[in-house]
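Researcher: I'd like a candidate sequence for this fold, 174 residues long. If you have to choose between options at a position, lean toward the conservative one.
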């Protein structure tokens, strides 16, 4: 009789008590983690604000437009303005194939410019492209000097690239 009471009454109670104690210990650990998060809330919010501001600043440096063609058109206008400012006569513009990467799209144009006498204005033109408020870079340069003995005229082509918001966005699970 005692064995029956022990097997049916006492053992299940002991097992239930062990499971309850384990569950309480787990819940205490979870609760302490939440308390830690709450105590660091101000720091986390400050980091989030800083990250949001950095993201907004990065977005301002991207070329506007929903499609690569609109981004390339904006890039073309910027390059045209900079070339006029520096006295570089552009012979032709050619829009190159856009390249996708993570969350950005790289749009590029190739320009060919007429012979120029001033290396200073060409250098300033390239400098203005590289230091523009939008994220632009000269990814390729090809120069040709017509007379090597008297290198006073140079012409060639440049591939100028800019970044714009891409279509690919990574989904983050919670």
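Model: Candidate sequence:
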């Amino acid at each position: 009789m005692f064995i029956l009471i022990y097997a049916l009454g006492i053992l299940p109670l002991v097992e239930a008590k062990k499971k309850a104690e384990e569950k309480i210990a787990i819940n205490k650990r979870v609760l302490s983690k939440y308390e830690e998060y709450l105590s660091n809330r101000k720091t986390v919010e400050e980091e989030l604000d800083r990250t949001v501001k950095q993201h907004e600043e990065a977005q301002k440096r991207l070329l506007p437009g929903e499609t690569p063609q609109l981004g390339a058109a904006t890039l073309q206008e910027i390059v045209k303005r900079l070339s006029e400012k520096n006295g570089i006569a552009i012979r032709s513009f050619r829009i190159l194939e856009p390249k996708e990467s993570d969350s950005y799209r790289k749009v590029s144009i190739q320009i060919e410019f007429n012979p120029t006498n001033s290396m200073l204005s060409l250098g300033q033109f390239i400098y203005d492209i590289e230091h523009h408020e939008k994220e632009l870079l000269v990814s390729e340069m090809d120069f040709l000097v017509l007379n090597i003995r008297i290198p006073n005229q140079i012409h060639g082509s440049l591939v100028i690239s800019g970044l714009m918001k891409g279509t690919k966005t990574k989904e983050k699970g919670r």
